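Subject: for your reference before the review

Hello V.,

The reviewers asked for a structural picture of the protein, and I figured it would be easier to keep everything in one thread rather than splitting it across files. Below is the amino acid sequence we used in the manuscript, unchanged from the supplementary table.
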Amino acid sequence: MADMNSLTPRQREIYTFIRSKIQGRGYGPTVREIGINFQIKSPNGVMCHLKALQKKGLIHREPNMSRAIQLLEDSPTGRPIGVKMVGRIAAGQPIEAIEQHDELTFSEWTENGDKFALRVSGDSMIEEHIADGDFVIIKKQEQARDGQIVAVRDDEGEATLKKLYRDKGTNRFRLEPANRTMKPIFRDHVNVLGVLVGVVRKY
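And here is what came back from the structure prediction:
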């Protein structure tokens, strides 16, 4: 369990800033945003604080992803992190509602440490029912099959979500949006971060 008392005053301020950004907008600040907010001129200075927070068990950072900071704090109430599962609901013909006593915990997304979440910005995947503001759960892997929805890192370190295809005629990769108003992106090389395994939407 992380010990908040072991933090220096500046580490505590930076941790609070990171936490407020993640809770407020769904993803963490960049190194540059932290530097500007705390008037730390050197990116290495910010990185030293982030490494200290990671070492003390408060955050986890995905390598080579500018915004991929995750909080590792325990549930503040000490209760299981989940939602009570009380039954099924029909989206077609009505079905009998029978109360169950299960719990939906999302543990399959959190236990192995091989998944991460990104917040969707834009409507390029809207025809796959992935909307602006949704959270996508990505399983970390470097390979993907044609047609799978993947998170790919671009040259600036930002992630984009698209369907991946290999163009056999040109040996290039095609990143296909699920929005007929948008054109595909072609790349000679792609850096696959992982494959989509879930979508979470807040209303």
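For the response letter, the relevant points are probably these. The first strand starts at residue 59 and ends at 61. The longest helix spans residues 9-25.

Happy to draft the paragraph if you're swamped.

O.
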